[in-house]
Amino acid sequence: MITVSGLTRQYGKRLAVDDMTFDVAAGRVTGFVGPNGAGKSTTMRMMVGLTRPDSGEVRYHGVHYQDLKWPARSVGCVLDARVHPGRTALNHLRATAAISRVPAGRAEQVLAEVGLETAANQRAGQFSLGMRQRLALAAALLGDPQILLLDEPSNGLDPDGIRWLRNYLSDFAARGGTVFVSSHLISELSMFADDLVVIGGGRLLAAESVEAITGRHDVAVIVETPQPVELVALLAAYGFVVEAAADWLIVRGTTRTVVSQIAFDSGIRVLELTETSRSLEDSLLDMTRTSAEFAST
Ligand SMILES: Nc1ncnc2c1ncn2[C@@H]1O[C@H](COP(=O)(O)OP(=O)(O)OP(=O)(O)O)[C@@H](O)[C@H]1O
């Protein structure tokens, strides 16, 4: 469990993060969402002691980050996927292991865990952004932490990479781990996050389960497909409630983007997708627009 209390940081006259309070539960994926400039990176940097807060604090199972005995073994973080371009992936991980006082043998293990074993001896300078993201995640995993903090980790990943990352993080949480992952795309996070922390203009707007947010905004998607049986089974496996009506399926509490992605991932044909009410993305825009107006007054 991570407890963030009253976290505040000002740059000049601008309050980048304003009295932010929320919890991140173990065994769940928590999405951290807000538009560009909302204060996500500043909050995450403060959570791991890279930026000093003006006030407020963050505790990991009751302990301040700077008081953790082995920070790399408790909290793995990816705030930036930059790597020395001249180093090979394996050497980068061995060097990071040495700094974090983790056995060098972990380097090969984590490379395999993120699917980069065949690129072990390639220089990071030749890596695509997606590969650098995987390498950064591997570095975060070196200490076998129970908590992961990731800032926009799907930037630069191709659709396969995004699906892999989603599954990896869901499995990590299912094993009891704590995952806190940021994105400016709520539709992407709502596909695999259990909880959402929504911010705008440096302020907390909502901290609750994805179900509560989608339920409150009463979103439903109407789908026409030649494979209704397969799609109903698939959506049910994701925990969605599906009603069949004539030739249509009605999926409650989600968005068109989510349904189309799930169908696409499994090769199910969809002829038409209609959203019956305002999308979650629109709700987020409304919430954050109000906060932006606050911030500029
Ligand atoms: N080192 C800094 N010096 C001055 N201002 C900063 C600094 N870091 C962040 N800010 C400002 O604080 C605000 C929040 O920025 P932050 O990077 O935390 O937002 P974000 O939600 O992560 O956005 P993005 O996704 O664009 O990175 C912005 O107005 C930004 O310009």
TrEMBL record:
Q: Does the keyword Transport apply?
A: yes
Query: Looking at the record's lineage, which domain of life comes first?
Result: Bacteria
Q: Which PROSITE patterns match?
A: ABC_TRANSPORTER_1, ABC_TRANSPORTER_2
**Which keywords annotate this record?**
ATP-binding, Nucleotide-binding, Transport
Domain (ABC transporter): residue spans on this chain: 2-226
Where would you find the membrane-spanning parts of this chain?
none
GO molecular function annotations of the record:
ATP binding; ATP hydrolysis activity
Can you tell me which family this protein belongs to? Belongs to the ABC transporter superfamily.
Kindly give the PANTHER family that the UniProt entry links to this protein: ABC TRANSPORTER, ATP-BINDING PROTEIN
Designated name of the protein: ABC transporter related protein
